[in-house]
Predict the 3D structure of the following.
Amino acid sequence: MPEQTTRPPRSTVLLLAAALAIFLPALSPAPVSAQDPASFRQTWRAEFEASARKVVSLAEAMPAETYSWQPMEGVATVAAAYMHIARYNYQLPHRNMGVEPPEGVDYGTFEEAFTTKDEVLEVLRASMDHVRTVVDGMSDEDMAAMVNLYGRDVAKWGVLFRLLAHMNEHLGQQIAYARSNRVVPPWSG
């Protein structure tokens, strides 16, 4: 004979549903949209800082002798992969948002010009600071201004999304490089 289950009284179910309807929205964070520039900027900045900390801490953890390592011929070395991230931290704001790089920064040569750990860390940190300066200097109207990115019209905040996605893509690459060299990413324990 099938086992019988008892249901709670209808009044209990209704009371629970009412409580959820009242308290659940208070527990959920407010949605962030491009229509709320302050929330977008704050959320984007938190994501950027989290990724930037990981990139820099992994670069610091890699031994200096691994900076010339590459998984195979024709693939970026550890140093070149970090410099690729740094290059895009200047290139995307410059080419797609009209923000000139600081005087003396020739980001087009980064991958070949900087190969030692000390050089790479200096340029990488400076590129992160450049992105911070760019974002801090943007007004809400500027953030929403339309620009061209890879042949399509996007708001400048879309370029910032691309910049963050690019950094995270190469963070994944650097994690693989680190583990191939028996380096554990500092945040993963």
